[in-house]
Amino acid sequence: MTSPLFELADISASLGTEHILDQLTLTVNRGESLVVTGPSGCGKSSSLKLLLGGLPWQSGRYLYKGEEVTPAMLPDIRSHCGYIGQESSFGRAIARQVLMRPFQFSVYKDRIFPEEAMYALLTRLGMAHELLDKPMQNLSGGQRQRINIIRALLLEPEILIADEPTSALDDEAAQSAVELLLNENSDFKPRTIISVSHDARWINHCSRQVTIYHGRVVAQEERHVHYG
Ligand SMILES: Nc1ncnc2c1ncn2[C@@H]1O[C@H](COP(=O)(O)OP(=O)(O)OP(=O)(O)O)[C@@H](O)[C@H]1O
Question: In this predicted complex, what is the ipTM?
Answer without folding.
Answer: 0.94
